[in-house]
Amino acid sequence: MTTDLPALFDVGYVLALPGFECSAVGARPTDLDAIDPAATLAACAQLRPVGDVSRWLLGDFAAGLMATVGEAEAIRRLAVQGHNQAEFEKAVKLALAVPHGVRRPGLTWSHHEEVHRLDPPLQAFWLEVAETEGLSVRELRAAIKADLEADQPALEGTERLPHPPETLLRRALADAGPDTPVLWLPSAGGLSAARVVDTARHGERAVVVVEIDAALLEQLPVTEAGEAA
Questions:
Q1: Which of 26, 34, 149, 183 has most Cβ atoms within 10 angstroms of its Cβ?
Q2: Neighbours of 61 (CB within 10 A)
Q3: Closest Cα to residue 45, out of 62, 28, 29?
Q4: Starting at the edge strand that comes first in sequence, how are the strands of the sheet with 205-213 ordered?
Q5: Rounded to an integer, what distance in angstroms lies between the CA atom of residue 139 and that of residue 36?
Q6: HSE-up of 21 (CA within 13 Å, CB side)?
């Protein structure tokens, strides 16, 4: 799964690469202004997407390089190094699609590929399910497919949302009880769908708290208390 980790992390400049914090699930940008294009290219030159760690690192380094020198110039410089364009573009696509904080070192690159089209909260949910239940890539794919195809009526108050994360909301409601009220809170995060962030105690009543983009919140019929009608 991550057999190339020891060899990669023997390379000192990868560990201390300016502007990045390296780990088994890639390189998290810490300061775009501190990224050194030459040092980043030197690190990329040592990487080939042959293992999970090298794929994450290559994707994150290339994404950082694109943010620093521009996409076209980054592609040109990486191509000069002999990187296959399709390979590093695939690595960059997944690195950009799956946030660093969502990735799980106990799962394979292929597990993360299965969730990359989902919103980050659903990515985190399914990766947690896969790791907790020991799902193979095929089993994870089947579980996501079955959930998407499930013939379930829309939850009350979510019919007007473009892509409500029904799985997360249903799981929270299942844990708290089917009659649990949902508290909708405005978010400034630019989210495109509702996101369950907490199940809390409100006096004697359990409340499922959901953060949602303020513009979408205006589409919901809510009471003065902020609870969906």
A1: 26
A2: 32
A3: 62
A4: 182-187, 205-213, 195-202
A5: 41
A6: 6
The mean pLDDT values, 10 residues at a time, for the chain of 229 residues are 41 66 87 89 76 86 90 85 78 91 92 90 87 93 81 61 61 70 69 59 67 69 48
Residues with Cβ within 8 Å of residue 112, at least 6 apart in sequence: 94, 98, 103, 104, 123, 127
Residue 199: predicted pLDDT: 66
- Of 69, 185, 31, the residue nearest 44 (C-alpha): 69
- In angstroms, the CA 5 to CA 129 distance is 25
pLDDT of the residue at 95: 92
Strand partners, 209: 183, 198
Strand runs labelled E in the chain? 20-23, 26-29, 182-187, 195-202, 205-213
Around Cβ 23, how many Cβ atoms within 10 Å? Answer: 17
Question: Which of 161, 153, 201 has the alpha carbon at shortest distance from 177?
Answer: 201
Model-level pTM greater than 0.90? no
Residues pairing with 131 in the sheet? none
Distance, in Å, from the CA atom of 37 to the CA atom of 73, rounded to the nearest integer, reads: 11
Burial of 26 (0-12, 13-18, 19+ CB in 10 A): buried
Tell how far CA 11 is from the center of its chain: 27
Please report the DSSP string for 35-93 in residue order.
--HHHHHHHHHT--SSSHHHHHHHHHHHHHHHHHH-HHHHHHHHHHTT--HHHHHHHHH
